[in-house]
Amino acid sequence: MSKTSYQPGTHFLQIPGPSNVPERVLRAMAQAVIDHRGPEFPELTHAVLDGIKPVFNTEGPVFIYPTSGTGGWECALLNCLSPGDRVIAYETGHFATLWKEVADKLGLDVLWLTGDWRHGIDAARIEEALREDTKHEIKAVMAVHTETSTGVTSRIDKVRQAIDAANHPALLLVDAVSSIACTEFFHDEWRVDVTISASQKGMMLPPGLSFNAVSDKAMQQAEKSRSCHSYWRWDAMQSFNEKGYFPYTPSTNLLYGLREALTLLELEGLENVFARHRRLAAATREAVAAWGLENLCLDAEEFCNSTTAVLVPEGHDADALRTLILEKFNMSLGTGLGKMKGKIFRIGHIGDFNELMLAGTLGGVEMGLQLSGIPYKAGGINAALDYLAKQ
Ligand SMILES: *Cc1c(COP(=O)(O)O)cnc(C)c1O
């Protein structure tokens, strides 16, 4: 689109993150910056640090960094591990692969359990690998909860059970970037040691913040870490946070936004937030099935609340469909990442999203399918509306 043209109406940002930011959050951010070392700041710090705990279901600290999710991954690995440490990483899809590459670059020794990008984590394989590790050389298990590149949500409770069944002391590190505030997540109950998340998905904020929720066990491991780093240190973050401050300049206006987003989540009620995501995801799958197209996720137990990845039939290009829909109907859909490039498109149904927005989204997809020459059956949108009307 040239700079001089204008597409009227609302742009539909239906990628699975960054997600749509509510007007109330945008307005909350449009306020004067205050002194992050001044007397007013602790009120904001404590509001966001206390307010975020229920979202992770934790009583422990949640550290907030001015960074993307990738920074949150690096932060977790640097704090509680040392170069040369052996870790398990499970290939659920593109994000798991990227996280593994971060671990490689930080000098960790990664045992890579490969997957087919259509299923979540098979916890039995983690249990087996841990049982074989009789000397307890494996220091951590890296698991992606919702694999946003495939629309598959793994069972983290099963991963916990596998670690316990093997009676292994490895830390459990979980990427919950696109599941926090979309899908139930129990940091304390599942005894996750570090949960990594970010602002631009279910938290309904612009990109720019990443979170580490940290267990006591991980805090203790951090004291022994030999990794060289400074910016990411949990200990410095914790001691400043306790007084209501940050070790360096935080993203003040994103914190205003976070405070407002937490208020919105509380007003809706987290249970209702999860139920809404579940309902809209189920309606999307009704549409996909009625179109006669295939959901990339093969196991109904692992269906994803945040995004649905749709396979296009052989010989067709999912990115050509996406481009057509963007140009003609002003809607962005998620692209296929990594080895799914061109094979799938992803419908984001994450964050600040409702029934009528989904109706518009599915309308755009259905019109795009009609124009693209991709074989499909009409009526996906009706199937979704019918499902939603009965809820
Ligand atoms: C979005 C996302 C990330 C974060 O990536 P950044 O681009 O660094 O913010 C990480 N993991 C998953 C599963 C994601 O969906």
Folded structure, characterized:
This protein has 14 helices and 14 strands. Helix 1 (about 25-30) packs antiparallel against helix 10 and helix 13 (about 355-370) packs antiparallel against helix 14. It folds into 2 domains: about 10-20 and about 270-390, Aspartate Aminotransferase, domain 1, CATH 3.90.1150; about 25-265, Aspartate Aminotransferase, domain 2 (3-Layer(aba) Sandwich). It is α/β, with parallel strands linked by helices and about 400 residues long. The protein has a 7-stranded mixed β-sheet, sandwiched between helices. Strands 11-12-14 form a 3-stranded antiparallel β-sheet. The model has no long low-confidence stretch (mean pLDDT about 95). It has helices at about 25-30, 40-50, 55, 70-80, 95-105, 125-130, 155-165, 215-225, 235-240, 250-270, 270-290, 320-330, 355-370, 380-390, and strands at about 10-15, 60-65, 85-90, 110-115, 140-145, 145, 150-155, 170-175, 195-200, 210-215, 295, 305-310, 330-335, 345-350. Helices cover about 40% and strands about 15% of the residues. Bound molecules: pyridoxal-5'-phosphate. Pyridoxal-5'-phosphate (PLP) binds near residues 68, 148 and 177.
